């Protein structure tokens, strides 16, 4: 299943990952590898375990067995906030932003400084912070909404804001769970543009259903089915895999 | 401390002490069942649970007075009617409360806590205005008094046996209703996915109302049973509320079996400790143990590991 | 907005209005007896202030604030009681020089944990540290295991119940249900006469404002915004690299320490400490002060406390029967109709009118009570 | 609450009419006395108390709400009855007693706060009030600081004496020792099991009882147990009682716990006609909740029972029921509360003044022959000389008098050899 030989080590290596909920194995002996600056899309039918894989990597769910190595660090033993500090960023399926804060404050909280209790108490909003927030806000098309309460944003804008909150963290591995779900056509186009811009200097792990969108961005596609890898490779290869056609694209 | 007692004495003490624990266990189960339904299934923190119980107790008291005045010949059987009336009265009040108050708060569990606390204060004052500040004594029919002599030194209180039998009966009934009946399936469906349940044609508002009413009704029966062993006053309900919540939480909120297991372990611990130290310290140690265990195992004794 | 780290201009006005009310208007309008009552109410305002941070901002509802109020109060009361139990004051006892309730309980020597309370410095440290560390332990145990919401509320309630039974049960060491009564002097200075009450009142108001400023500082720091963020989307905060548990523990400890300061003030003001402040009923009542004032409003907490207590005193003087109906109704009304309490009413109904009046002359005025950014949102869950 | 002083109404006739109207519900059938004929206010009130030419104000301070309302209601009723009767008989020094009632709400600091309000704002001449030891301990520093006069009705643990308090109930030795002596003699009791609620009064009482049992009666205490206030589960201690088989169960369980205790005792097959039980905490009030059938046969040891057969008591019971309803019962504390206003009136008249210092000084030696419990007298230590009685609980909730001390028992709040 491994593809080719790699001159440099993987950014993310998942090996033998298994998690079971009361006997039900949502992810079963899963192994895959993500390189630096690679864009990997995970697809698969509902219940294939896609979101669970992201949960496992970012520490939201604890693995029953298996290894997740990121830049040589074993993630399964770290706490969520330590995983974030190691350089993994995660966007959730439904936009999860802070409704009671302004767009500016939403972004500011994600700025990687003052993350301890006392750091937060003594945090000051200096020029570095302000510049960075403005820069990201511009990128996510929310430059003129900075003082607006985040609750008032549209669904698409909330998705962008969350992406922006990840960008300001500047992670090495960005994990996106259905970033264009529920968006209008024009928003979707804008999002694709945004994603294409931000995936430049980092690796990205995306879960997406929209095949057109997947084809646009994916370097490589992994197809999950019942917690296991069904097929892996370029979009072209996966598309023509008879197993995939049967369980997924077939209907 | 056992030196002074003979082996035979000790044997009967352990039997009787175990039995005392079983009575306490029944009391806890009765109290907690209604709450396990309301809190475990609906997520509502019903701080007025004790007051629903006391309503049942007052209904029992009124029924006993009525029988004494008008139907003295049937007095020996009044208790069964009283329990039914207690169920209906507390259930009806529960339904009203759900309609006026609770249904607006399903998304704000902490606010149900405050609102039902307010409700409990108002009910207490209402009881005080209607029934007076003094405790009322419920007279029991003759056959419920006294004890069965098992051996020379082992005696079993009849009302204790009655409470235990009642507990078993109600537990079975609740288990049947929640796990076997069509209505129980609807309740669980609503709990798991309100929107979906609504979409497949379950009247979620109605299910909520009847679930809450059922929980309150069971509290009423519990109150009725308590008149046999405890006191009935406007503020008696408050004494039970912390214990009851701990039983439910300790068991794992959504699990009926957990509630029973936790009631059993808490009651046996407390009743055993009471034999070795003063009642207040036994209570402190029991509560401390429960809180300590909850800190180590917050999900309680029985909890499902679910895919979030 | 947050140009200034502590407050913005309109909040400063709000604080000045409160200061004028407490420092000038009340002392001028009330006799010493009523002023002492206000002082007693204000001790609860410390608790309410803590609850704004912990519950309003952090979304952590503690039903055990009485525990910390009690711990603070008992620490202070132990010092005062020792001073009141000098050998010549207690020569009637079988063992002179120990508190009277110990003597009644056949205790013949001062227990070891009482001894350090001869020192005022130690006492003041204990007022802060004992509840603080206790909160740290509870908080760490609960929040590190992600216990929150209703479970946390129930467990804090159980802690309140345990501590009450313990204090009542260990009466030889604690004074039992009677509590510690007849506290007389602080370092030789009699705290009972009227002039002492007045001095203590102003001292307390001073402390209250220090605590208000601390609360303001926390709220306007990034930590305050993280608390709000956590209430909205705990996971998002966690996956932005924060240890959510540590922030919750911090908020809970701050609330505990503020409550404890309130309790110590109470012992000074009332000359009395009893387990009736530790239990569940007072703890829940303290939550209602915050709820009435507006759970998101620091100044609202003070007004809410004063209002509920004034209502309690006057209603229970004239219609004792009605008081419980009134209090119960207040709980329900605050939850159903006014989730943001007085501050919400002010902001939704009063402030816009004032704004309209002013706006004919001045262009802009901001809310004096709550931060716009937070008050807009739904109530905490 | 009574009417406010009406300074604007100068006409004596109008004033009298108004007063009559206020008192109408209670004393309309009694001849209406006229007030205002007493000695000049300036001479009888030199410390600025709320005394006018026609009125004197006292405070009533009990819990009308909260858990203690159950117990304190009877005291409030008795004090109001006494005040009505005193007014109907011409008042105090020619002045009508007006009362201000405050609610302590079962909360000790509230008691202290209300006591302060009564003394500082209302300037009451005396306070009839408090019930629990805790509320008295809270109020005591206040009455001492502001020099008030408190008439405290409950039997209590002793270890206290104040210039500013008259204790109209019995202190612990007064209540307990005679009862223990009686039961030791009558039942040949040698072994005792103590069970009480967990607070100062039961603990102190049991301490005194233990010393008496061990040192004087040469008996043995085979168990001593305490349960938190409000406990409702007594099965464990009942098992211990069954195991240790004491000659006497000695109880000072208070409040609602009593109901649970006696019901469970009965259910466990402890027959009170065979097992002697002596309680110092169950009065007719408590039996109302416990139910006569659950406690019949138990002995109670205190100074008053509703069934006492003397002319004073018959009149008192009749008046009480007339005022508060046929169904009300009267317990020991209720009677003691009734003594408060009367003792105060007698003291004021002896001192010829409302001044607290003079009343405090004049109190010792005051005799009240009209007491329902029969003759009582105030001791130097501000407690009452009174008889101690033992009653046996009957099915109808009343006590049958079994024994009474031949002489008045001397109050001894700081008993030597019992501390």
UniProtKB/TrEMBL annotation, chain A:
One of its GO terms (molecular function) is ATP binding. PROSITE patterns: ABC_TRANSPORTER_2. SUPFAM superfamilies: P-loop containing nucleoside triphosphate hydrolases (SSF52540). It comes from the Bacteria. Pfam families: ABC_tran (PF00005), BCA_ABC_TP_C (PF12399). Signal peptide: none annotated. InterPro entries: ABC_AA/LPS_Transport, ABC_transporter-like_ATP-bd, ABC_transptr_urea_ATP-bd_UrtD, BCA_ABC_TP_C, P-loop_NTPase. Residues 12-251 form the ABC transporter domain. One of its GO terms (cellular component) is plasma membrane. Keywords: ATP-binding, Nucleotide-binding, Transport. The keyword DNA repair does not apply. The keyword Nucleotide-binding applies. NCBIfam families: urea_trans_UrtD. This is Urea ABC transporter ATP-binding protein UrtD.
TrEMBL record, chain B:
One of its GO terms (cellular component) is plasma membrane. PANTHER family: ABC TRANSPORTER PERMEASE PROTEIN, BRANCHED-CHAIN AMINO ACID TRANSPORT SYSTEM PERMEASE PROTEIN LIVH. It is a multi-pass membrane protein. GO terms for molecular function: transmembrane transporter activity. It comes from the Bacteria. Pfam families: BPD_transp_2. The keyword Secreted does not apply. Coiled coil: none annotated. Belongs to the binding-protein-dependent transport system permease family. LivHM subfamily. Keywords: Amino-acid transport, Cell membrane, Membrane, Transmembrane, Transmembrane helix, Transport. One of its GO terms (biological process) is amino acid transport. It is found in: Cell membrane. The chain crosses the membrane at residues 12-40, 52-71, 77-102, 109-127, 158-179, 212-233, 239-263, 275-296. It comes from Bradyrhizobium australiense. This is Urea ABC transporter permease subunit UrtB.
From TrEMBL, chain C:
It is a multi-pass membrane protein. One of its GO terms (molecular function) is branched-chain amino acid transmembrane transporter activity. It comes from the Bacteria. The chain crosses the membrane at residues 12-30, 42-64, 120-143, 150-173, 198-218, 239-266, 286-310, 322-346. InterPro entries: ABC_transp_permease, ABC_transptr_urea_perm_UrtC, LivM-like. The keyword Transmembrane helix applies. This is Urea ABC transporter permease subunit UrtC.
Automatic annotation (TrEMBL), chain D:
Gene3D superfamilies: 3.40.50.2300. SUPFAM superfamilies: Periplasmic binding protein-like I. InterPro entries: ABC_urea-bd_UrtA, Peripla_BP_I. It comes from the Bacteria. This is Urea ABC transporter substrate-binding protein. It comes from Bradyrhizobium australiense.
């Amino acid at each position: 299943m491994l593809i080719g030989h790699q001159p440099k080590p993987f950014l993310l290596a998942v090996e033998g990952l298994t998690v079971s909920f009361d006997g039900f194995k949502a992810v079963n002996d899963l192994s895959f590898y993500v390189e630096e600056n690679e864009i990997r899309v995970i697809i698969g039918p509902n219940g294939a375990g896609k979101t669970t894989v992201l949960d496992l990597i970012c520490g939201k769910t604890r693995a029953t067995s298996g290894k997740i190595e990121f830049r040589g660090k074993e993630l399964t033993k770290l706490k969520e906030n330590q995983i974030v500090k190691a350089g993994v960023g995660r966007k959730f399926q439904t936009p999860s932003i802070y409704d009671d804060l302004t767009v500016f404050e939403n972004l500011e909280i994600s700025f990687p400084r003052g993350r301890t209790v006392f750091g937060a108490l003594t945090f000051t909003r200096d020029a570095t912070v302000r510049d960075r927030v403005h820069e990201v806000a511009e990128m996510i098309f929310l430059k003129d909404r900075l003082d607006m309460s985040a609750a008032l944003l549209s669904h698409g804008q909330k998705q962008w804001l969350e992406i922006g909150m990840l960008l300001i963290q500047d992670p090495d591995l960005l994990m996106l769970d259905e970033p264009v779900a529920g968006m209008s056509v024009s928003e979707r186009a804008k999002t694709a543009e945004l994603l294409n811009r931000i995936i430049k200097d980092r690796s990205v792990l995306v879960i997406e259903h929209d095949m057109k969108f997947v084809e646009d961005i994916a370097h490589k596609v992994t197809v999950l089915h019942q917690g296991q890898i069904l097929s892996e490779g370029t979009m072209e290869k996966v598309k023509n895999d008879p197993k995939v056609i049967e369980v997924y694209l077939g209907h | 401390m056992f030196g002074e007692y003979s082996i035979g004495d000790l044997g009967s003490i352990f039997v009787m002490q175990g039995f005392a624990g079983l009575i306490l266990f029944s009391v806890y189960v009765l109290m907690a069942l209604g709450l396990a339904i309301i809190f475990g299934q609906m997520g509502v923190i019903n701080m007025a649970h004790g007051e629903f119980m006391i309503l049942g107790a007052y209904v029992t008291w009124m029924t006993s007075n009525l029988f004494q005045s008008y139907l003295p010949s049937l007095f020996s059987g009044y208790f069964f009617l009283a329990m039914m009336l207690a169920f209906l009265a507390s259930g009806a009040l529960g339904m009203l409360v759900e309609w006026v108050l609770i249904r607006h708060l399903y998304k704000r569990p902490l606010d149900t806590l405050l609102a039902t606390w307010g409700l409990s204060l108002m009910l207490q004052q209402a009881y005080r205005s209607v029934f007076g500040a003094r405790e009322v004594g419920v007279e029991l029919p003759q056959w419920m008094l006294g004890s069965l002599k098992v051996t020379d030194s082992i005696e079993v209180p009849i009302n204790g046996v009655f409470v235990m039998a009642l507990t078993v009966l109600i537990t079975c009934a609740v288990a049947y209703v929640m796990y076997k009946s069509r209505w129980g399936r609807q309740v669980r469906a609503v709990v798991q996915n309100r929107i979906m349940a609504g979409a497949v044609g379950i009247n979620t508002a109605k299910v909520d109302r009847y679930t809450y009413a059922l929980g309150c009704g069971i509290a009423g029966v519990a109150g009725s049973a308590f008149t046999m062993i405890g006191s009935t006053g406007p503020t008696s309900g408050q004494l039970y509320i912390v214990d009851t919540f701990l039983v439910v939480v300790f068991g794992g909120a959504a699990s009926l079996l957990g509630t029973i297991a936790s009631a059993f372990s808490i009651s046996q611990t407390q009743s055993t400790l009471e034999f070795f130290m003063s009642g207040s310290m036994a209570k402190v140690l029991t509560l401390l143990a429960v809180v300590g265990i909850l800190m180590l195992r917050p999900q309680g004794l029985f909890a499902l590991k679910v895919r979030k | 907005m947050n140009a200034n780290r502590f407050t913005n201009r309109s909040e400063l006005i709000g604080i000045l209005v409160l200061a004028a009310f407490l420092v000038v208007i009340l002392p001028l309008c009330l006799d010493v007896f009523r002023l002492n009552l206000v002082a007693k109410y204000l001790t609860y305002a410390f608790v309410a202030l803590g609850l704004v941070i912990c519950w309003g901002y952090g979304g952590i509802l503690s039903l055990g604030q009485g525990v910390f109020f009690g711990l603070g109060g008992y620490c202070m009361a132990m010092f005062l009681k020792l001073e009141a139990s000098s050998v010549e004051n207690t020569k009637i006892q079988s063992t002179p020089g120990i508190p009277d309730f110990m003597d009644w309980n056949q205790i013949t020597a001062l227990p070891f944990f009482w001894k350090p309370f001869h020192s005022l410095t130690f006492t003041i440290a204990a007022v802060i540290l004992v509840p603080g560390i206790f909160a740290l332990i509870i908080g760490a145990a609960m929040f590190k295991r992600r216990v929150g919401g209703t479970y946390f509320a129930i467990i804090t309630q159980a802690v309140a119940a345990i501590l009450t039974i313990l204090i009542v049960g260990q009466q030889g060491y604690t004074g039992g249900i009677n509590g510690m009564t007849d506290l007389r002097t602080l370092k030789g200075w009699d705290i009972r006469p009227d002039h002492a009450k007045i001095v203590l009142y102003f001292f307390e108001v001073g402390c209250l404002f220090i605590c208000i400023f601390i609360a303001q500082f926390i709220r306007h720091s990034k930590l305050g915004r993280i608390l709000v963020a956590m209430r909205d989307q705990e996971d998002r905060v966690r996956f932005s690299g924060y240890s959510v548990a540590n922030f919750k523990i911090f908020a809970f400890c701050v609330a505990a320490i503020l409550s404890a300061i309130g309790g110590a003030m109470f012992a000074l003001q009332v000359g009395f400490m009893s387990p009736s402040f530790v239990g569940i009923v007072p703890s829940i009542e303290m939550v209602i002060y915050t709820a009435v004032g507006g759970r998101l409003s620091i100044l609202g907490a003070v007004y809410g406390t004063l209002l509920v207590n004034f209502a309690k005193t006057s209603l229970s003087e004239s219609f004792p029967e009605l008081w419980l109906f009134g209090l119960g109704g207040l709980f329900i009304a605050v939850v159903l109709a006014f989730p943001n309490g007085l501050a919400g009413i002010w902001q939704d109904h009063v402030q816009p009118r004032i704004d309209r009046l002013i706006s004919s002359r001045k262009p802009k005025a901001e809310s004096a009570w709550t931060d716009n950014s937070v008050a807009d949102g739904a109530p905490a869950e | 609450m009574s009417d406010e002083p009406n300074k604007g109404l100068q006409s004596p006739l109008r004033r009298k009419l108004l007063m009559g109207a206020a008192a109408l519900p209670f004393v309309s059938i009694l001849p209406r006395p006229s007030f205002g004929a007493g000695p000049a206010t300036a001479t009888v009130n030199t410390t600025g108390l709320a005394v006018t030419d026609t009125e004197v104000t006292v405070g009533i301070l009990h819990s009308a709400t909260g858990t203690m309302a159950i117990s304190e209601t009877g005291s409030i009723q008795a004090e109001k009855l006494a005040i009505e009767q005193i007014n109907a008989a011409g008042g105090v020094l020619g002045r009508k007693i007006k009362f201000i009632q405050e609610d302590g709400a079962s909360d000790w600091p509230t008691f202290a706060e209300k006591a302060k309000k009564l003394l500082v704002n209302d300037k009451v001449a005396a306070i009839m009030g408090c019930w629990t030891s805790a509320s008295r301990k809270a109020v005591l520093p206040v009455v001492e600081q502001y020099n008030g006069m408190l008439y405290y009705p409950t039997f209590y643990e002793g270890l206290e004496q104040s210039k500013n308090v008259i204790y109209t109930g019995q202190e612990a030795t007064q209540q307990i020792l005679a009862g223990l002596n009686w039961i030791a003699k009558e039942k040949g009791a040698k072994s005792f099991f103590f069970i009480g609620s967990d607070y100062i009064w039961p603990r102190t009482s049991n301490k005194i009882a233990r010393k008496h049992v061990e040192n004087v009666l040469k008996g043995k205490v085979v168990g001593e147990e305490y349960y938190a206030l409000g406990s409702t589960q007594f099965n464990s201690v009942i098992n211990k009682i069954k195991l240790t088989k004491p000659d006497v169960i000695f109880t000072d369980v208070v409040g609602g716990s009593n109901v649970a205790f006696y019901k469970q005792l009965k259910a466990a097959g402890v027959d009170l006609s065979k097992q002697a039980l002596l309680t110092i905490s169950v009065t007719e009030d408590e039996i109302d909740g416990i139910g006569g059938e659950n406690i019949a046969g138990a002995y109670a040891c205190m100074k008053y029972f509703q069934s006492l057969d003397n002319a004073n008591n018959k009149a008192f019971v009749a008046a009480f029921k007339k005022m508060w309803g046929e169904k009300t019962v009267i317990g020991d504390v209720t009677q003691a509360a009734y003594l408060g206003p009367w003792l105060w009136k007698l003291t004021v008249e002896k001192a010829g003044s409302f001044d607290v210092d003079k009343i405090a000084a004049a109190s010792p030696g005051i005799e009240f022959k009209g007491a329902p419990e029969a003759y009582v007298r105030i001791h130097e230590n501000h407690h009452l000389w009174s008889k101690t009685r033992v009653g046996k609980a009957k099915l109808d909730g009343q006590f049958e008098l079994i024994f009474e001390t031949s002489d008045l028992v001397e109050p001894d709040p700081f008993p030597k050899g019992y501390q």
